[in-house]
Automatic annotation (TrEMBL):
Protein name in the entry: MBL fold metallo-hydrolase
Bias type Low complexity, positions: 234-243, 254-279
Region (Disordered): 221-285
CDD domains (UniProt xref): arylsulfatase_Sdsa1-like_MBL-fold (cd07710)
Native source organism of the sequence: Nannocystis pusilla
GO molecular function: linear primary-alkylsulfatase activity
């Protein structure tokens, strides 16, 4: 096994509930992706509710146990891949979304791409995921030791509730439950519909899956990603140079100016340059 992947697998085993910075928490290791909780004045803003109802419920129970019972006032989907929205019905009742008690925010084009990938191409995508993630290998040192990006895809029920509001341009701002958010659209990068979110009150930049501790593939079986759109300031916001914390929807966060900038630079440069010109690697998402 590649030593870096072995190291990554060991780090991914550090799981549980983490405080990233003031009013920003994450549950890691319950699914392939992380779920992030932002503490509002009254309730929670939940970012990326994992792949399955079961894993989302388990993560929420952990949050409730340690941080108290607060209502979920909004859910934000960073992008159109199911490990970032599939657990939503484990957290939110659709009736509350329809009545306006819970808002669901996503980047423009989210529904079209989510349906295209997981319904129209759903069977092929499921087979691809089974091979790509080695889902039927034994879980041991000779079989499956992890998926790079996270421990593994959870098995369970995948769900979806349509967004109530789309983010349509970079710089768009929202204030929900006393929390200010500034969005940066990053279409045709890691996903065809994706966005980063900046929290100026907490000096925190949520980089979605645009910056991780792994090397994403550009030439994927589900369609090529745009290396040129992924790299540089178009995706790795210049705001990251002034952030204190960089929580992400996969892998671990980085802190401090250097951490945020280094991760961003490494991800964009390696994804856009190395992969697109020389190699086709095992896809990590
Ligand atoms: Zn993704």
């Amino acid at each position: 096994m590649n030593p870096s992947l072995w190291r990554q697998a060991q780090l991914n085993m550090i799981y549980g509930l983490f405080k990233v910075t003031e009013r920003v928490y994450q549950v890691r290791g319950f699914d392939l992706a992380n779920i992030t909780y932002i503490k509002g004045d009254r309730g929670w803003i939940v970012m990326d509710p994992l792949l399955t109802i079961e894993s989302a419920k388990a993560a929420h129970a952990l949050v409730k146990q340690h941080l108290g019972d607060r209502p979920i006032v909004a859910v934000i989907y960073s992008h159109s891949h199911p490990d970032h929205y599939g657990g939503v019905r484990g957290l939110v009742d659709e009736a509350d979304v329809r009545s306006g008690r819970v808002r669901i925010i996503a980047p423009e084009g989210f529904m079209a791409h989510a349906v295209s990938e997981m319904v129209l191409a759903g069977s092929a995508m499921a087979r691809r995921a089974a091979y790509m993630y080695g889902m039927f290998l034994p879980r041991d040192a000779q079989g499956n030791v992890g998926s790079g990006l996270g421990i593994a895809n959870a098995t369970g029920t995948v769900s979806l509730i349509a967004p109530t509001q789309s983010i349509t341009k970079t710089g768009q701002e929202l204030v929900i439950d006393g929390v200010k958010m500034v969005f940066q659209l990053t279409p045709d990068t890691e996903a065809p519909a994706e966005m980063n979110t900046y929290f100026p009150q907490f000096k925190a930049m949520w980089m979605a899956e645009n910056a991780t501790h792994t090397l994403h593939n550009i030439q994927t079986l589900r369609g090529p990603r745009s290396a040129t759109r992924w790299r540089g300031p178009s995706t790795c916001s210049r705001r990251s140079s002034c952030t204190a914390t960089g929580p992400r929807s996969s892998s671990r966060p980085t802190t401090g100016r250097c951490g945020a900038r280094r991760t961003c630079a490494t991800t964009s440069r390696s994804s856009a340059t190395s992969t697109s010109t020389s190699t086709i690697n095992r896809c990590t998402c």
